[in-house]
Amino acid sequence: MARPTLSRPLAALAAALVTAQVTTPLAAPAFAQSYPSRPIRVIVPSLPGGGFDVTARVLAEKMGPLLGVQMVVENRAIAGTIGGTEVVAKAPADGHTVLVGGLSNIALNPGLYPALSYDPHDFRPVGLAVSYSYTLIGRRDLPANTLKEVIEYGRAHPGKLTFGGAPGTGQHVATVALFAQTKVDALSIFYKGATAVHQDLLGGRLDLYFDNIQTARPHIEKGAVKVFATSSPVRLSFLPNVPTVAETGVGKLEMETWFGPFVRRDTPQPIVARLRAAFEKTMAMPEVVSRFENGSGRVLDMTLPDTEAYVNGEIARWTKVIRDAGIKLP
Predict the structure, then answer these.
(1) Given Cys at both, which of 104, 174, 230, 266 links 93, Cβ 3.0 to 4.6 Å?
(2) How does DSSP assign 209-274, residue by residue?
(3) Could you list the residue range(s) of the whole structural domain that residue 147 is in?
(4) What is the pLDDT of residues 52-83, one digit of tens each?
């Protein structure tokens, strides 16, 4: 049987569609098949060693081979987390530049900076990998043993209680938010990083630090600091005797710092799907789960729609909390 042939009008239409595939979104599937075509940059908007950096390196090590290219981690600590985030905001939306997004640069900055140079909604999550609680710790000779006693001491000595943290970080925001709702007048002491805060806390020169559990845990386990409460929704398994803020009854503060890969919002969906598939396979690896859990993290397992909804909710919630508490940067 002879093969059917197209009439001239239909042939012309078919030719037009073939041409259109080169220049219109119809080419997206073919474009995605060639993705990635070169190494993928993973932008970390912070210095090495913190939650942003650890997340980037764990994911890059495992996702790169699944995608068939190297994922190169770049630390861009410029103007806090703003500069590194801007790098991705200005990069082509082709999936070759990935941002490590977190509570700080995605959900806190919009409330802290009235004229932020990027819109967090211009990014979309590939997924959230891990979250970490904040834990309120204090110097060993602080005359308080519970969060309730800390609040009572702060109220009885207005302006005397001190707490540390880098401006605009989760550590800073968590403490101000807690003291704002409990009517405590405390003095914020700004530091460049956790190491300097711990030096003063352990030396008795600083009263409190609402620290990321990653860096607080070693000091807690050594008994070098007092520990009052965690900001997690439930008690931490490795700190079973430490209550959550909600459990203490003095206030309401549920806050975790989370991290995961993000891309520009206008990145083609097939490319996002490829990244998501590699991300899901990576997060299913027992060694990856162990790496995060051994580092005091809570591994997250959410669908992509649930992840989108969660991130949008965090942006709205923390923008309101920051503005209601009147949190200002120096």
Answers:
(1) 266
(2) EEEEHHHHHHHHHTT-SEEEEE-SSS--TT-TTSPBHHHHTS-----EEEEEEEEETTS-HHHHHH
(3) 132-248
(4) 999 999 999 999 999 999 999 999 988 889 99
